[in-house]
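Structure tokens please, single chain.
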Amino acid sequence: MAEDDLPEKFDVIVIGTGLLESILAAAFARVGHSVLHIDRNDYYCGDWASFSLHGLEGWIKEQQTGHPDPVEHPEPKEVTLEEGDILVECPLYGNTNTHIETGFLVCEDEPDPQPPAEQPSDTLGEVPGDSSPSGSNDTQLVPDISQLSVTEASKITETVTEKSCESTEGLDKQSRITVGEKQHADKESCTSEAEEETAELTNSPTTSHTKHEETNTETVTEVDLSRTSHCTNVPDGEGGQLDPAACDYVSEPRTQFVSSWEPGTDATPQVWTKPSIEKEWRKFNIDLSPRLLYCRGAMVELLINSDVSKYCEFKTITRVLTYLNGELQKVPCSRADVFSSKSVSMIEKRMMMKFITFCMEYEKHPEQYQDFLDKPFSTFLDSRKLKPNIKHFILHSIAMATDTTLTLQGLENTQKFILSLGRYGNTAFLWPLYGSGELPQAFARMCAVFGGIYCLRMTASSVIVDKENKYRGIVTTEGHRIESKWLVAETSYLPKQYLPSGYGSRSTCRAILMTDKSIHPADSEQLTLLHLPCPDDPNRPVSVLELGPSSMACPQGMYLVHLCREGADNSCSPREDLQPALDLLFPDSASPSDSGPSILWYMYFRQSNTQGVETQTPDHVVTIPGPGSELDMDHVVKQAKDIFARLCPDEEFLPKAPNPEDIIFDDGKSAEPGEGFQDKPSGADGDSKGISQPETTEVTPGDTGIFQTKVTPEATGICQTEESEGNSQPDSLEKSQVGKTKESE
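Here you go.
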């Protein structure tokens, strides 16, 4: 929208498109408030963004040289001021990322092509059914792929498999095809073990998708946050209770056509050069602040309840590693892992399972930890007489704690990890496909659906206050005055006089590395999490996240490794602060070795950490911190709920929107613009067997384009669920029930 067409007044102005800002903007718009969401950049997400390789190169240039086209402050004569208005100048662009160091560690040019070796006659194979060009034979001779180079073999594989991909042409990136329906048509195909260890984000099983994008073959487990379990013997739209035995509870593999090299094989890996890496620039999705989601964390529940999950896709973190006894080891997390692990003895396995069982319901046994509330969690573990190996697994990999973490916090972390296992398979974490930057954009889409207005490359050049230092509005970079009841802004957008004297003293050191191999090779591609205590300062551990091609973070034959550590001070560079972890993970990075991974490209930078910064702002101005060094997103959800409750105490936080198919016209009247949703509480009589009916919603005329109607709980087909002793119930009613309800109305 052109700035000249913007209204002069809004309920809320949100500056910055990071994750917390986007959640709040969606929450305000969802309950009917008018929202203006602006950002100084020409991309969404701010410091939470994900870039392609070319996009990241442009971002680095902006951070090092300043904004390429900074917007000048408007002249005072261009601003319409009222009596008593005072302008407080704001920065036009931020400086939250510093000490950027980047470069390639590969050849600058492509290697000289080697003359093709003569192939013996026995290296030629026959493909039955194909006619030779001369027509003299019924077979066509093709080279044996195993004898060719990686590039040649890949080209031949793509050619041979081209016809088999014709049926999938035309599917875009968001196409979703449920696989495994034919294989699981029989009820007996669902085993009891699969029913226990797989999950679906609305407390029902996982479904899987097929994306036909690359000519690669890999096995991928994806988690769809918006779908319930699919049942092969019940047609779509047919109502009734589903038979659990007939449902596909297993995350099915997604098959794509591959090159000749895969992790864990003896084939020669691809030789990367700077031109070959830059040629694949579109296949990179590089996060500035990567984040994971606990499978039973607050962010996952918010995505389910708000229905924002339909905009995102996820993949499970397949393993958790730790550094123990001088080597990387896989951490046994679930019961199956514990009893199949060879790194712990039978006695240690029983001790570990006993402690995990206690942590799942530690609140019921306060007498066992009451004396350790003011003591470190490590001291409590010592009191349980756990073996050193078990203590290390629990302290550093499951609770992800340090030697100074208090007992209660350690128990909470352990419980959160254990309860997240089994919901979406044998994992506690989910990774957003295409990067963490997808989540802020998903909430921004919801805000726009409910009337929010977005303007990039626009920010506040000044904040308008009166003589009593009360907030009135902002002046945009084009010199227009816009008023609002509330201003919600990320810290780097605020005037300097609103920030404390110690602002900028805290920071997070980050590194992004491209490698040719995994840090811990396996037979198949793994998404890896590692919590690494460093010998120089164990209280500042390094979080390591390794992403492969199936995460949509990098191309085939490469891995993307993120390192994150809370900065001690600004006296040393980010590389120096992360060097202890680099020495452990890449001991031979300076001299490439056939055994370990080699770093192909690197970027080190320092990111400002404004978590916990107390600002001195006028009334009705809310400060939003940037990303910190945390691994998950649950603290962001808590902050969003607290801010929303303070600004809108009587409103529901991000309620689920009604299905557009269930909105009906009243008496055939034409569409009238609507004002928003006004929730009215329903009676308690609608509750039944732990499933509570949602509130009846009146939709009234206004500005959002929602038609005048009355949406009842039966018509929406949405109900809330309660969880009891690990049992789950469907999050939504069957489509046929919705249809019957509409007919009865």
